[in-house]
Design brief:
The complex is a heterodimer. By secondary structure, chain A is mainly α. Chain A has 25 helices and seven strands. By secondary structure, chain B is mainly α. The chains are: A mainly alpha, B mainly alpha. Chains A and B meet through helix 3, helix 4 and helix 25 of A and helix 8, helix 13, helix 14 and helix 18 of B.
């Protein structure tokens, strides 16, 4: 079954989506109190809570060396039981008696579960028919939204469905860290927030598919959720569907024209995962400001805590958004009422969230780990000269939208819309400032390279805010009012015309190489095979099989002796499994010369060229001596050799029963 | 027609009525009122339908009134006299029979071990299996025991209940009812495992899952047949079936040249079929011999299930307790070597299997001494006067502690014999079974666990005999939780072989708590005897 085949993708996507559905949709309904009145708010709140639970639980279980399905499953079951079983004794008895009576009645033939099911089904069908009959404007909106989101999905997921090789260089780090977490190891390469990797590892445990699929799907899925997050923020805040659609289109489809790293939309990076919590959190903060309910404050705090536990830079972004909204609220209320109290509460909860976010770091130090070196270097790296970025159409559009909102602000009466406008002005303004002047003022490489991503996240709400104000102005013009209904299809169709092709990021190795790895994992039992290949193979094979660097084979193993015998030894290496796969690149895989990482990779490519030539000689000598080597796969770029050794009867017996039978 | 004439019209009914009268009087010499008689009748399995069929009475209460009138007319004064004492020879024969019965139960296990040592295979194991298949068979076996545990207890409890009264037809119907549910739950569990595996990809279907389900299903069928053979006192038949099964494997594998797995699956299928047919045959023949083979409607299923639910629960908990440590040990992902969620480790299994042999003699001894205790208890109810209850309790308390010591001493001796036996056998056969440090370690800890567990088993039988199943299931629930938690934590923090401390700690809790419970019961023996009657 090839990687891109429909059946393969359906199987793996099915598992991936099922685990997400189970973990973040089904379980939270049973575990947490459902306190939100609006379904959409409740879903987002459930998702936030569950992600936090998964991350906190993951940290605890990894630390205790208990991170596995049995422990996670037991915790979930206990939490569900805790919420299902009534608190007081009388209710508990009633609960038990009801179940017992039902069971005994069933035994005596007094009731029939089949009849119950049939009645339930008939009622559901009746209510569904009733709803279907009232097909309305809302349904049209849903259809438009679904269609738009389908396009957003297609642009992002196409790469994951077609290309087996992970996207971008960071993918291998993410893959390895996810597997370290699965192996109950925290901060393997130094202290770095592990929230995203715990989230991935938990999903992997429930999806029960190769980690590579989780990695490939998670990137597009995260950026899709960010897009949905924009919809949620705008539609719930200003309650205006066309505005929400504009935000979705700006980020989901026109993102290619913004200064964000478009390729990152399909790469599984913790930064993007952290971003997805920022905007929905702002909605709950807005709700807290408006109605003062603790449940909204809690949901907001949970969202920000997740951001802190996942990515420090995204956390700073979330703090910036929180500050902007707080200032907007103070501006709107002019500090009257309980405004000060609420803002102080936010500051205090922010302090608490910061402490929680720092706890993993403290744990890392207690474990004797140091910071993740390259991250720290990147964080504090200073550059020499930074030019101000060139502005494009989308930047000007966002800036114009900000100006419109500044102009309109005084006349907005609706409180929700006013707060949204003020938030957009403060937040959008700050992001633009950071993007345009940040690099040249601070000389920080981090700010210079990543501020574009932040500004790109601000663009959708700036443009959506401007669109809303324009829409409201135009609606006042009598002859235009009725024609405004055509705005949605017009905007949608014109933007879809501009729709970019599916995102295809750069790779680090041949697709066929990854496909052969998947073929091996499907054909051979885990831990019974070794892959000998370049560095990329390590992250892939770790956890499922064993990996050896090509250089180790060339330096340590004698091709004139059978089945992987070390230099100077006479028997095959007993620590190497019975099936060995050697990957030789006929053509060395290289990223495009225009890619920023090419220069960094160049020495590696030269070394690989040399190693593959040496491997060719090694193979020639081996095949001259022995016949137990076969070709497992071959194409124009790659050849995979297979070396097999049968286990003796005694070796098998020792494998099962230990040394006792010898 | 006069109702009285209607109730007792025939000779048969008169005979049956007299028999019932004597049964009631055996249970209670002087019933308080007709309601107590009605309760006694129901406890004997009489319901309205059966009463109507047998005596033509409207319901149990009407029959109770008749019996009450008969007792009032025929006031009997029976002196407080001791029961007829059996001779010492009879007693010894009876006790020896109990002991052998306990031992015979372990015979199939001994034959399987013998077969493994000599032929290298038995009905469902093989020395040179791949670890995948060993894992499948182990999972299938564990699932079968856990699934069937509750049904075996239910069948034994309810089946014995009718068989002791000679109602083989009723025993057959209730037994087959439970067997049917046993099969249904087996099929449902198989479907669940299949779907669960489809979603969570635990094992590859063609190379593993199919074997897990096949072994689970056939072993399930065999255990259900064995239970019926046990209640019909045909323990040797099962031993014969095991020998026959091994013979089938031998023929299919060595003579016909099939793969061992094929041979075992075919043999399991044949043995489960033969077992089921034999059970049917035994019931038919017992029914023919029995005078009470008339077809009477069974009590309402809700009542039956409600009354045997604790015993069902006990069976499920007990087998889960026995096997859960294996799941803990085999699910540890140590040294990065964990291809699937559960991976068989023979060193651990061998240690436990060898240790299990230490239970053979204590089981026989336990059967003997508990039979003796129950025998004396029945006698004592007629010997002791009401005000002598404390004296009776004291006597049985001291008797219990003597039994306690006997079981402990016997089990310790059995454990030492087992240890040296395995060692000696290894030397004799030139294969050191305990050479692997893990097997050795597990073997020793498991031996200690089983010594302690044997006391609990004795206590459980006593509490069951006095109709106090909840006292057993309560402690078993906690012991199981402790077993799981201890095993899980120690295997993840120390080493997979430390799973064996789960049953050890569980057994300690079981022994201590159940001993306290038995002590509590024996201290108020008169009350518990009354409640049990």
């Amino acid at each position: 079954m090839s990687y891109s085949s429909l059946s393969n993708q359906l199987f793996h996507m099915g598992h991936f989506l099922f685990s997400i559905f189970l973990l973040f949709n089904v379980l939270p309904r049973f575990i947490f109190i459902q306190h939100q009145k609006v379904k959409m708010d409740q879903w987002v709140s459930n998702f936030f809570r569950m992600v936090l639970l998964v991350i906190v639980m993951g940290y605890c279980l990894v630390l205790l060396k208990l991170f596995e399905v049995l422990a996670i499953g037991t915790i979930f079951i206990l939490l569900i039981l805790k919420s299902l079983i009534p608190k007081n004794k009388e209710s508990q008895e009633e609960f038990t008696n009801r179940g017992m009576t039902w069971f005994l009645d069933y035994l005596d033939g007094l009731i029939s579960p089949f009849t119950h099911l049939l009645t339930w089904y008939r009622e559901k069908r009746k209510s569904w028919r009733g709803k279907r009959a009232k097909f309305s404007f809302v349904h049209t909106q849903i259809l438009i939204l679904c269609f738009t989101l389908a396009v957003v999905l297609y642009i992002r997921f196409y790469n994951a469905w077609i290309n087996a090789a992970p996207s971008m260089s960071d993918a291998y780090v993410t893959l390895a860290w996810m597997k370290y977490i699965s192996g109950r190891e925290l901060f393997h390469d130094g202290i770095y927030p592990q929230g995203f990797h715990i989230y991935l590892a938990t999903i992997k445990k429930f999806a029960a598919i190769d980690a590579l699929y989780i990695l490939n799907y998670m990137g597009p899925f995260n950026s899709f959720l960010i897009t949905v997050g924009f919809y949620f923020l705008t539609v719930r805040w200003v309650k205006h569907f066309p505005t929400a659609l504009v935000a979705v289109l700006t980020y989901g489809i026109l993102g290619i024209y913004t200064p964000m790293g478009w390729e990152r939309q399909v790469a599984s990076n913790s930064q993007e995962f952290a971003f997805l919590f920022v905007f929905p959190s702002m909605f709950f903060l807005k709700k807290y400001f408006m109605n003062g309910k603790q449940k909204d404050l809690l949901t907001f705090s949970i969202g920000i805590t997740i951001t802190g536990l996942v990515h420090s830079f995204a956390y700073a972004f979330a703090v910036m958004a929180t500050a902007s909204l707080s200032i907007a609220y103070i501006t709107m209320t002019k500090g009257r009422g309980d405004c000060v109290k609420k803002v102080i509460t936010i500051i205090l909860s922010g302090a608490l969230v910061t402490i929680i976010s720092l706890i993993p770091m403290g744990i890392g130090f207690l474990l004797g780990k140091s910071y993740h070196a390259s991250t720290v270097n990147y964080l504090f790296e200073q550059g020499q000269v930074f030019n101000r970025p060139t502005l494009h159409f989308m930047d000007y559009l966002a800036l114009s939208s900000l100006l419109i909102q500044i102009g309109r602000n005084r006349w907005i009466r609706n409180k929700d819309q006013k707060l949204f406008t003020l938030f957009t002005i403060w937040f959008g303004g700050s992001l633009f400032f950071l993007y345009y002047f940040g690099g040249s003022i601070t000389h920080s490489v981090l700010i210079d390279s990543r501020s574009g991503d932040l500004w790109a996240l601000g663009l959708p709400i700036c443009i959506a805010g401007g669109f809303l104000q324009c829409y409201l102005i135009l609606r006042r013009i009598k002859w235009l009012k009725r024609k405004l209904r055509y705005v949605v299809p017009l905007v949608l169709s014109s933007i879809l015309l501009l729709s970019p092709p599916p995102i295809n990021p750069y790779k680090m190795e041949w697709n066929s190489s990854v496909e052969q790895y998947l073929r091996i994992t499907e054909s051979y039992r885990p831990k019974t095979w070794t892959i000998i290949s370049q560095e990329e193979g390590y992250a892939l094979t770790f956890d499922g099989g064993f990996h050896m660097y090509l250089s180790d084979l060339l330096n340590n193993y004698d091709p004139t002796k059978i089945s992987m015998t070390r230099n100077g030894k006479h028997e095959p290496d007993p620590y190497i499994p019975k099936d060995i796969f050697i990957f030789r690149e006929k053509k060395i895989f290289m990223v495009s010369k225009t890619n920023s990482i090419y220069e960094m990779m160049k020495p590696k490519y030269e070394r690989r060229e040399l190693e593959n030539k040496k491997l060719e000689d090694w193979m020639r000598i081996y095949t001259n001596h022995f016949s137990n080597m076969s070709i497992y796969y071959e194409d124009d770029n790659l050849i995979v050799y297979h070396l097999h050794r049968d286990l003796t009867k005694d070796e098998k017996s020792v494998q099962i029963w230990g040394e006792s039978k010898n | 027609m006069n109702r009285r004439e209607y109730i007792l019209p025939s000779h048969y009914r008169q005979k049956e009525f007299n028999h019932l009268l004597s049964e009631i009087l055996k249970r209670h010499m002087q019933p308080e009122d007709p309601y107590e008689i009605a309760a006694l009748l129901e406890s004997l399995g009489w319901n309205d339908h059966r009463v109507q069929n047998t005596f033509g009475a409207q319901d149990v209460f009407e029959l109770a009134n008749e019996i009450w009138s008969a007792i009032q007319r025929k006031v009997v004064f029976v002196p407080f006299a001791g029961n007829q004492n059996n001779s010492k020879k009879d007693l010894i024969i009876e006790l020896l029979r109990s002991f052998l019965r306990g031992l015979i139960f372990a015979l199939p296990m001994a034959i399987s071990v013998f077969s493994m040592i000599t032929l290298k295979f038995s009905l469902w194991s093989y020395e040179y299996l791949s670890v995948e298949l060993a894992t499948c068979i182990a999972i299938g076996t564990i699932m079968s025991f856990v699934n069937v545990g509750g049904y075996t207890q239910a069948i034994a409890r309810r089946g014995f209940f009718y068989i002791y009264q000679g109602y083989y037809n009723m025993a057959k119907r209730i037994t087959f009812y439970f067997i049917r549910i046993g099969y249904i739950s087996c099929i449902l569990l198989s479907v669940f495992v299949y779907i669960f595996n489809l979603v969570f990809n635990l094992f590859p279907f063609q190379t593993m899952l199919i074997y897990i389900i096949v072994y689970f299903f056939f072993l399930n069928a065999i255990w259900l047949s064995v239970t019926v053979m046990y209640i019909l006192r045909r323990e040797l038949t099962f031993t014969g079936l095991i020998i026959l099964g091994i013979g089938f494997v031998y023929v299919i594998k060595d003579v016909l040249g099939f793969d061992i797995i094929v041979a075992q699956i075919i043999s399991l299928l044949l043995i489960s079929l033969i077992g089921s047919l034999l059970v049917l045959y035994y019931f038919k023949s017992e029914e023919k011999r029995s005078e009470k083979s008339i077809s009477i409607k069974l009590p309402r299923m809700s009542i039956t299930l409600y009354s045997i639910a604790p015993y069902f629960y006990y069976g499920f908990l007990y087998f889960t307790f026995l096997f859960v440590d294996r799941v803990m040990a085999w699910s540890v992902n140590d040294q990065g070597y964990m291809p699937y969620v559960i991976w068989f480790r023979g060193q651990y299994e061998l240690g436990l299997d060898f240790a299990l042999m230490a239970l053979i003699i204590p089981m026989g001894v336990s059967e003997v001494i508990v039979s003796k205790l129950m025998y004396d208890l029945i006698k004592s109810q007629k010997i002791f006067l009401g005000h002598e209850a404390p004296k009776m309790s004291k006597m049985y308390l001291s008797m219990y502690f003597r039994m306690f010591l006997i079981v402990i001493v016997t089990t310790c001796i059995s454990a030492i014999l087992c240890y040296w036996g395995v060692h000696w056998l290894g030397i004799k056969m030139g294969r050191e079974f305990l050479a692997d440090p893990i097997t050795h370690f597990v073997f020793i800890v498991a031996l200690i666990s089983y010594v302690i567990l044997s006391v609990f088993l004795m206590n459980a039988v006593i509490l069951f005999s006095l109709s106090q199943p909840f006292m057993v299931t309560n402690v078993l629930t906690w012991a199981l939780i402790l077993n799981v938690v201890t095993g899980f934590l120690l295997t993840r923090w120390v080493h997979y072989s430390f799973a064996v401390f789960g049953p050890l700690i569980g057994s300690i809790i079981l022994m201590i708590y159940s001993t306290f419970q038995v002590r509590k019961v024996l201290k108020n023996l008169d009350y518990y005897l009354y409640a049990a009657s």
